[in-house]
Amino acid sequence: MSVLPVSAGAGGRPLGEWNAAYAKVERYFYALQLRNKVVLGKLVLHVLDRAMERAAAEPNLTPTELAVEEMDRLIIKWFEEILGATPETKNMLPTRGRLALILADMPGRWQDQFLAPGPWPEEFVTAMREAYLRAGPEFQLARMDPRPLDLGPMGAIVELTQTRFLQVSVFSTWTLFILILIFIFIRTH
Amino acid sequence: MISEPETMPAAEAASRLILTPASPVVRGLRLFSLYSLAMFLTCFVSVFFADLLWRTGWSGSRTILLVLFFLLFFFAAIGFMHALYGFVLRRIDLVHRPASIQADDPIDPAANTAILFPIYNEDITRVYEGLRITYNSLKSAGQVERFDFFILSDSTDPEKWIEEEKAWQKLIQKTGGMSRIYYRRRVDNEGKKSGNIREFLSVWGQRYRYFITFDADSVMHGRTIVNLVNLMEANPASGLIQTVPGIFNARSLFGRMQQFSNRFYTPIFIRGLDHWSEGFANYWGHNAIIRTETFMKFCALPQLPGRKPFGGFILSHDFVEAALLLRENSQVWLAWQLDGSYEEGPPDMIENAKRDRRWCQGNLQHMMVLGARGLHGISRIHLVQGIFGYLASPLWLAFLVTFYWMWLLTSAIGLSQITVHSWMADLDLDAAAHAFLVFLLCMGVLLVPRVLAVIDAFFDHQRRQAFGGMAHILVGTIAETAFSTLHAPLQMLWHTRFVFTILRGKTIDWGTQTRTAEGNSWAYALRQHWWQTAIGLGWGGIILWFMPNTFFWFLPLFLGMALAIPLSVFTSRARWGDIAKDFGLFLTPEETSPPPELVALQTRLALAEQDEAAGPQIPHLIQSVVDPYLNAIHVSMLREAQLNPESAQALAKIGASGPDVKWIAEKLIVRGFDELRPDEKMIILSDADSMAWMHRQIWLRPETTLAPSWRQAISSYCT
């Protein structure tokens, strides 16, 4: 890993653009909860180094675009190495890798191992490979079919009310209410 | 009765306690005696009341009044008899203590138990901290390996969904609960809570001999849970054992009074209830253990025929599930002896009313089930009591309206109140004294249970101390009674409104809740209570104008309504709750000697509150795309959901992986979440591949091409 050239125009681009690239890469690593400044600084510079190598040949991409692409490639390659990937699982690798990092507690215990070349501590590799989130244990599917419930007289009443003639509407409710009032009035006079 | 089998050695007997229901004859006699005494008391007082009505001349409205009085008094007398029975039985228990059901022996390794937390757009911090406390308590009891925890989310708010996943990952990291604490979210929430549990049972139920249902705010001690499992193990005929959750963690004045009321009065009622319902008790929906196989076989609820509010899914499923278990001769027990089971209550009158609105609809729906063939008679009693709990309010209102109408009519047509002699001439009472006697009898039925609870504490030193001493108990009971007197007419108006809106198939718009740090705002209380205040002032004014003699008899009624707004605001305030606590009022056993679990919960919740107050956070929806870990967790859970055929089908149904997803994802990147419709949000959040793709795109694309919300989120990650 070389040190970033101090002179302006590294890779033919202004230094200000590399500064923006640095910030973006650093933010992603920070989002991965890399808090060790030594590890963080070293990894960001490593990514920028690789981006600078491409900079002259790819003038249509900004340093930030180059840097984040390199970061992405680097991370995926590392996931491939540590987790082992089959062609079937390759498209799921980035997600699986990130999940493994948090479940294996990379931010808490293994920051120095992140993106480091192998061999890695056995405990870390095992934790990474076995990391898997599950919504529950193995399925044991069963059907829980509702048993019919004979509602008795209420069921019969409901069936009746399903007919158009007896459908309860606002109109019939109010009619009933008024009839009750009339009945009470007559009874009390 | 809970008893120890005589043939077992003492140590074994202590851990293998047998729940033996009373014989049908004994149970029948108990039931008959309690309800007959309630009926006798009702008839006795109703005769007095009828006599009083007779003295001013009989009329049709008096017939209506008497019928309403009879119904309402009978309901109150049932409660009174439960308290009286409970009080006497508790006195006997103190002398001849029944066998304790503490049985925290190691659990049989085959007795796997799932602990279920069905949630729906809840306060995640509160739910997960409650789970964490229960988990740690079981760990301390050394038996956590016999249990799996399931957070069963039915949340429909996408922000809540992501927050739940994020908090779950933190929870398993903090507790070491990987492969012990699970989280799954249903794509649709068909059948609501009962559907949620049914879906769990369909997928994993067969792995577990028992399951314990929790509410979102439930907490249970580890040893209580172990006891429940051991009780189920020792009693294969038991299908369900319900604990009696104590309310805890209240701060507002209203909450503290409810908490005191629950902890202080409930034991005598529950003891009375258990007397006749041994083995034929009820299920209250949470804090209960259930035998999985029996439940799966008999308790899959059908949809009720007809339209809402009575047709469709059974809302208050718990009563019906208990009834179905009893129908199949599976016992249902009330474990009133077990402590260490808790829940929280509503913090204010309005929240209390909102909860009542839900329960009211569920209980009214039980009218459909009441006549179902094959149900045990006791189940019908449980159902009727639930229904009448809400129908009592319109009946009470009808009673008052009839009473005043009758009097107003008499005044309006200029009839004088000439009274004739009483039927019971030996009493030699004038009409006013007669009316006062009826009034006293009614008050007695309502207030004696409170007095019995005080006497119960007077004779129980431990209990007395647990509630802060006799002086505090007395003042607390008087204050709580005064508040209940003012609150009761508001409940009457609310319940009446609920019953009528439900019958008309309408909903109630509660508006947006505006709470200050202390409690409800005045404006919010005004919006919720203005109609009650108006009724109270109007009604009270009319009575004062036309019938000043009766006004003061019913003053608490009008006062409760007229003062609804200040009462609501004042009792919602935590500050007044704290002051009451400082004066030693409304203390509960959990406050005078707090269990470590509850102390830990309160500490963690206070810390979480501080964290939340620390500053604004990036919305969880945005984090679900930008944050590398949260995105990975979310995508993994979606891929996991695809493995379940039913979930996969439901995901496809809402359009996840459909043709529109790529277009929605692109729109999301360029415009942000705010520009998406709710259904589009759910589609994109439900598509694993798009979520994974978007994470890379957000970080790879030039920031100038992204919506401002993404740029802001990326900027938030800085050293």
Description:
The complex is a heterodimer of chains A (189) and B (719). Chain A is mainly alpha-helical. Helix content of chain A is 57%, strand content 0%. The longest helix of chain A has 21 residues, at 63-83. With 719 residues, chain B is of the alpha/beta class. Chain B has a 7-stranded mixed sheet, with helices on both faces. In chain B, helix 5 (158-175) links the parallel strand 4 (147-153) and strand 5. Chain B is globular and about 95 Å long. Residues 1-11 of chain B have low confidence and may be disordered. Chains A and B meet through helix 1, helix 3, helix 4, helix 7 and helix 8 of A and helix 3, strand 5, helix 6, helix 11 and helix 24 of B.
Mean of pLDDT of chain A: 83
General shape of chain B: globular
Helix content of chain B: 55-70%
The general outline of chain A is elongated
User: How many β-strands of chain A, per DSSP?
Assistant: 0
What portion of residues of chain A belong to β-strands? under 5%
| H/E topology pattern of chain A | HHHHHHHH
The structural class of chain A is mainly alpha
The strand line-up of the biggest sheet of chain B is 5-4-3-6-10-8-11
Computed Rg of chain B: 28 Å
List how many beta strands of chain B DSSP finds: 12
Question: Which segments of chain A are poorly predicted (pLDDT under 50) over 5 or more consecutive residues?
Answer: none
The chain pair with the largest interface is: A-B, 61 and 73 residues
| Percent strand of chain B | 5-15%
Largest sheet of chain B: 7 strands, mixed
What percent of the residues of chain A sit in helical stretches (DSSP H or I)? 55-70%
Radius of gyration of chain A: 34 Å
What's the quaternary structure here? heterodimer
Helix run count of chain B: 29
Query: Kindly, what is the distance between the CA atoms of the first and last residues of chain B, rounded to a whole number of angstroms?
Result: 65 Å
Broad structural category of chain B:
alpha/beta
